[in-house]
Amino acid sequence: MKVLIDTNIVLDFLQDRQPFVEDAVRLFEKVDAGEVEGFIAATTITNIYYIVRRAAGVQAAKDAIAQVLTDLHICAVDRSALEQALSLNFKDFEDAVQYACGMAYGVDAIVTRDASGFTDAEIPVMSPGEFNRRLE
Q1: Do 32 and 135 form a contact (C-beta atoms < 8 A)?
Q2: Is residue 96 a contact partner of residue 90, using CB atoms and an 8 Å limit?
Q3: What are the two backbone dihedrals, phi and then psi, of residue 25, each rounded to the nearest 5 degrees?
Q4: What DSSP element (H or E) covers 39?
Q5: What is the pLDDT of residues 92-109, one digit of tens each?
Q6: What are phi and psi of 130, to 5 degrees?
Q7: Quick one: 71 exposed, middle or buried, by C-beta within 10 A (0-12, 13-18, 19+)?
Q8: Which of 14, 61, 72, 112 could form a disulfide with 6 if both were Cys (CB 3.0 to 4.6 A apart)?
Q9: Number of other CB atoms surrounding residue 122 within 10 Å
C-alpha cells in the first residue's frame, strides 16, 4: 500500500509531538517493516528543515532530513504538479500540492491530522490512528 504522509505527521514523528507521536511512530514502523510505502512531496523536505532548524538547530534539521530521505519516497514537485494543484481550488495550496503529488504517484491514501484540507478528495484521507487501525 502506498500512502502520502502529510507534513504534520512527519513532524509529529521527528519532533516527538504529544499527543500525536504514538500514531506517527506506528505508521513509520509499518514503513520500516515494508508493510507500507511512504511518500512525501518534495516541498515537505524544505518545510521540515525550516521547522526543525528553528526548534532544534541546523544539525538536528540535517539529521531529520537524512532520516526522511532514508525512510520515504520523495514525490517530485514539477510544473505539472503545481498546475494540477492550482486547478484543485483547495483552500490551502500546500495541501493541494501534496494531493497533486499523491495523484501523480498513485497513492492509495493520504495520512494527515487535517483532513479538512483535502475536501472533495478522490483519494481516501485519514488520520494516522484510522490508518493504523485499518492495517491491524
Answers
A1: no
A2: yes
A3: -60, -45
A4: strand 37-41
A5: 999 999 999 999 999 999
A6: -60, -45
A7: middle
A8: 112
A9: 9
What's the total number of domains in the chain?
Answer: 1
3-state helix, strand, coil in the chain (%, to 5): 60, 10, 25
Residue 94, judged by CB atoms within 10 A of its CB (0-12, 13-18, 19+), counts as middle
Phi, psi of 83 (to 5 degrees): -65, -40
Contacts of 72 (CB under 8 A, 6+ apart): 5, 10, 31, 38, 39, 40
114 pLDDT band, cuts 50/70/90, is very high
Task: For 57-81, write each residue's pLDDT tens digit.
Answer: 999 999 999 999 999 999 999 999 9
Give the domain range for residue 118.
2-135
Calculated CA dihedral for residues 100, 104, 107, 110, nearest 10 degrees: -10
Question: Any idea what the CATH number is for the domain that residue 124 is in?
Answer: 3.40.50.1010
Could you check whether the bond before residue 124 is cis, i.e. omega within 30 degrees of 0? no
Amino acid type, 14: L
